[in-house]
Amino acid sequence: MAEKMRGDQVEPEEYGFTVDTHLFRELGELLVGRDSTALIELIKNAYDADATRVIVHGEDLHGGGGTITVADDGVGMTPEIFRTAFLRVASRYKEQGDRLSPRFKRRYTGAKGVGRLSAHKLAERLSLRSVPDSGVRSAGSSVSSEQGVQAVINWRSVEDDHSTLDDVGDGLMVSAFDARGQVPGTELRLEAVRSRWTKRTLSKFVQEVSSCLPPPGLLVDPSFDIPPEFAPLGHLKPWTRGDGDPGFKIAFQGDLDIGDDLWMRLFERSNWLLEIRATSSGVTFAIHPTPATLDDFPEAKSYFLRRDHPNPERGPFFTARIYARQGQLAVRSAELTKFADEHSGIRVYLEGFRVVPYGDRHDDWLGLNQDYARRAREFEIILDEASSAVLPKQEGESFKIAGNYQYTGGVFMTAEDAACLRPVVNREGFLQDEAFGNLRDLVRNGVDLVSRARAATQASGRSAKAEKLQQRLAPPVQEPSKAELELSQPQSDIEEKPQEKNARDNLNFSLTRVRQELTNIRATVGPDTGLAEQIEMAAAAVDLAEHSASQEHADQAMLEVLASVGLQFAAFIHEVNGLLSEAQALRTLAGALDGRSLGPGQSQLLQDLRSGIESLCQALTRQASYLTEVVGPDARRRRKRIPLSDAPRTSLLLLTNTLNERDVEVVQDLDSSVRTPPMFPAELTIICTNLLTNAVKAAGRNGRIMIWGGAVKDGGIRIRIENTGKAVSLEDAERWFLPFETTTTEIDVVLGQGMGLGLPITRRIVSEYAGSVRFVEPRDGFSTAVEVIIPGREVRR
Length: 797
Prior knowledge:
This protein is of the alpha+beta class. Helices cover 38% and strands 17% of the residues. A hairpin with a 7-residue loop joins β3 and β4 (67-72). α2 (35-48) runs parallel beside α6 and α16 (498-525) runs antiparallel to α17 (532-591).
């Protein structure tokens, strides 16, 4: 740049901003969160282009380096639109006019011009070919065009070979072609996909992408009749579209094929239906029992309830349709069970597209999992006076609360209805402000009403099936003898309390009687009546009940033993401190022998003695420090904010010898500026010790452990402990949070043999702070990772 000198000042002939090519990478990571979000942004672009069908094809995606193709039948792009809209970062193209698409008047779902950033995030190269619809005038284009555009963007070349966006050289190649007579539409080919997906992570990616639209079965009327006086929502249309819009469908092919659609089978196995309509004039809740519930409770009723909207001026306003199950999914289909596990949850949709992470497997935006785990004694439901009289508070209603897994449904909003909600910068979720709080509270209000309706129904009388069974079993049967009853009871060496024994005898008596009844029925009805299968299922259920009762008895006995051990463990601190004092006295006596004349071999004997005493002192010091930290008088006297960097200190001190003996390297990356929410120091020590002992066992000899921690929003903390060595399958990880589930067989003085109680105890402690602990995907170089999140006080209820 040439310069002219004038006195002491420099007067440049040219000035101008320049932008580094790394902007694509930086903005891509900031504005587009997950890989699935990036692909969904490209699908949204097809929707905004008035496409009625988009085909998403994946090829060779396992392990990375594959190809994803997104092809639509929309209005396409001219070379001019490609230049001014697609190539212009943060383009205002979609902000012109009324922000409606040219053909079907759809509300634009994209606003920040991040489509090309999504393409950059997903792959190293983008090949584009677009044929415009010559009969449609798009926003920003005054005339139609019969020229199409094709382009190749090599993101790696743009970043590696060119420093600014003013000069991308051969990183961008664009040409026009004669598009007359060709079918309009756009094809994006993402080549050299960046992510190196494993089988599991690819499956999760496909699941997230395939869920971007609501399942069609959720938008239509339910399969059973709803009384018209309860104002059913009917066919939902949760988007802003013109009357002539034929709709929008996605076809997934290749590695992105989602297989069979099991949504309707999942809905049909529900027990209750909840419909919510929130408008400026108020909020209505319609609750209906499904045929499955009516079979058990013929007297079950529908309810139509109402309350005022907390902010009728601003909203948010929405409709919701939610199916609720109770109990386990009673179906002999591993496929459907897996589908329910992956797709259950209450999701949020804006203009027909899903807003993540709401409804994800581990997302608890409504606090259902938290309350289900803690079994809150009561919950608050707001209704107007008339509705409260129709469905009053029920005794024990909070015990009907179910976790996210028991619900499948959606909350639907248009852009106008959700104008008060502010999306976060990476387009995943909304800011946790008052407007979002109103949305959450209204949906949770409806879900709690379902729990209340369940409680009212079950309190109203016996189920129809139970009455029919009682009539069938009406003929007198011979009571089981005392000897038969004794034979039916599992033997135990553990003495039971009188009330426990009576309850156990009653249960075994009932199970034995039911088994005899089934035997009588089996002999009466014969094999060809169509009831044989049901009878065998009932017999299997009795077997399972007997096994569960026996297991529960054994587990209860073990917990009582452990409680006794815990009390003795607390008293053992005094013994340890006494042993430590004696060891320190021996060390002093041994030191007094220094400088004295010793006979042959005595010097070596004294050196060995002093070394042994020193090791004993160190071991007792570590044990005393840990025991005092956990069960000392200050351990649970007062909650306080603990520096995060101090969290593993006591645990690592306890494990020093074990780490050295196994040659395990421990690396810490804990933010020293972060403090925990107020909590008992003993609980934090127990959490770290349980997780670190598991990590040491799994890492084995010459292993590595990484302790990472930092802050999360709202004043909470995140701690992640990763280890090399033995891996834990994430698909089977939840089993290790069950009591007495363990793979450890070796006995270690510090680590113990392993009773399978460390993770259940950890989860129990963390749940008291409304937090979570779970196995997560480890980073490169590690085999297993466990993550603990403890939210700040302000987000806990």
